[in-house]
Amino acid sequence: MSASVPALSRAAIRVTTFLVLAALPRTARAQKTFIDYFQPTPIICPLTTNTWGCTASGATPSNCTAGVGVVPRDTCNGIESAKNPPSYYYWDGKVIRASDGTYHLFADRWSGSAGFAAWTSSDPIHATGDGAVLGPFTDDGFAYSDGSFGSDPHHGHNSSVVELLDGTFALVVSEVVPFTIFTSQSLDGPWTPCPNNPGPGLSVPGTGFGGNNTYGSNVSLVARPDGDFEIIQRHGLIALSTAGLCGPYDAQQPTNAYPSNEAIPSASASSIYPNRQKHLDSLAPATVESTYSLAEDPVIWFSGGFYHVLYDYPDDRVGYLLTSTDGIHDWTDRGLAYDPRYAQQIFSYTDGTVDHWYKMERPGVVLENGTVTHVTFAVSDVDKNDQIPANSDHGSKVIVVPFDGPDLDCDLAGGGCDAGAAASPDSGGAVPHDAGVRDATVDSGDGQNGSGSGAATSGASSRGTSDAATSGASSSGSASDAVTSGAPSSASASGAVTSGASTSGSASGGSAVGGPASSSGGDGANGGCACVVVGPGAAGGSPRGGLVLVSGLAAWLGTRARRRRSRAVRG
Predict the structure, then answer these.
(1) In a 3-state reduction of DSSP, which class is residue 8?
(2) What whole-number distance in Å separates Cα of residue 419 and Cα of residue 529?
(3) Do 247 and 178 contact (CB within 8 A), yes or no?
(4) Are the C-beta atoms of residues 413 and 406 closer than 8 Å to each other?
(5) What 3-state DSSP class applies to 243?
(6) DSSP labels for 120-139?
């Protein structure tokens, strides 16, 4: 009994200290945005020049910028028709893991002999992998057959697949066919359409959306943890079904927490998209294309206690992240999510090679253990709108990019996962993205200033790549000693962990006091979740001069567990 008293006293002191110190002023922490969590991509197959696309050296096809391109590249990543010219164009794309550990990819394809403009003839396909999330994937043919779609029973576009809470699956198609939800017990099919129209009363309201009044376009579905189902469509309109997967879905009136300069016009008030007056990315076009007519490609998912939506401006080629705690109310603008101008930030391989894709659209997320491990994009090497004629040496594919979802979850939960990261003075509090290094490949037609360089230069991103990355393995969270001047380091505990050694939380730029020990480089003071550095132990301060507060024990424990599970899967 007497031995337990000091332990209880110590626990009481810890709790009391937490409650007192939690009320103290906290040093502000630079806020990262979605683009800062991308990780270098491990190489599956040797980079090859024997494929279509703009080349990084030597002669290059028309409509390309000399010196940069997407050749050489890893044609085993994601899915593509690698021959030149390509037999098919692949678009959309969603990777999902089956219970047996295999990965499946669903995408849409159509003939390369028809040109990219023939995308309205696309058919959803099902592809299977060999056990690695990055690929390669083998195209197994059409995903389904539905006689109601007319002369082409395999027809469809914007295909996406979702695992449901009971372990079964839903496949959603729209755009060129009526919005349809299929169900299956297995990712291998067969897929059975819902017996009814899931959205009989849904429509695009009024005149606030540029005359595009087709609701069944770019539809994305999430199986909500409360058992309901939610969809979002092209214009950011959301609908909810409390009657099951097949609906009916009822339109919802969202609310938001946007600043006054992003207030949504009344005619478009049913959208969750903020009314941007300018892009948060200084490298993007100065004038924002019409949000409520042209913004598109939303994907919705739930992770880390938030509903997330990624969406983009297709001609401006800029994407953003929005979040809400209940999927309907208080949508919050989380800033820049992706932009192909930051090629080194998003499209780097672990050997330092960088692909320079011109277009990146149709985002998708790979969810494992409740967090995002990878992000998929449909990409093209030139402007898909008018520069990919039939049988040309240009094309499109689906790529898979590693992503540090546990850190994103931790940061959104209010944790100090990277207290050592610093923001540039002109970034508005955001960690810099390649510090303004401009990618000449994707720059044509924007009229923006930049260095025109896609190479790694001072201020370029260095995200802590591990030399131990092997085929199919993610390198996210690996330790690194090389962080370029002014660059964000998305690796956890940069340089803090040596082989097999445990530290006392001595992470780069963080506090060595109060951080849990780590042997993986991910849970030290700089990588442990929900920690807030106070006083001189803040970014750039003395590593032992600050206090580390636990601002959310539940969030910290939950996210730490997710990080460990994620590493186990990726390792």
Answers:
(1) helix
(2) 10
(3) no
(4) no
(5) coil
(6) GG-EEEEEEESS-TT--EEE
Model pLDDT for residues 12-69, shown as the tens digit of each residue:
444 444 343 334 333 333 479 999 999 999 999 999 999 999 998 877 888 998 888 9
Q: How far apart are CA 231 and CA 72, in angstroms?
A: 38
| 378 alpha carbon, distance to own chain's centre | 12
Cα 455 to Cα 174, 484, 510: the distances in Å are 39, 13, 30
Q: Which strand (E) or helix (H) includes residue 562?
A: helix 553-570
Q: What's the CA gap between 137 and 347, in Å, rounded?
A: 19
Q: Which two tokens stand for residue 357?
A: 């894709």
User: In this predicted structure, what is the pLDDT of residue 28?
Assistant: 35
Asked if 158 and 143 count as a contact pair (C-beta separation under 8 A), the reply is no
What is the C-alpha separation between 401 and 396, in angstroms, rounded? 16
Cα–Cα dist 538/430, whole Å:
16
Phi, psi at residue 65, to the nearest 5°?
-105, 125
The whole-angstrom separation of Cα 49 and Cα 464 is 27
Question: Does position 535 have pLDDT exceeding 90, yes or no?
Answer: no
Give the model confidence (pLDDT) of 453-492 as tens digits: 333 333 333 333 333 333 333 333 333 333 233 333 333 3
DSSP 511-551: -SSSPPPBSSSSSSTTTSTTEEEEGGGSTTS-TTSSEEEES
Angstrom distance (rounded) from CA 154 to CA 152? 5
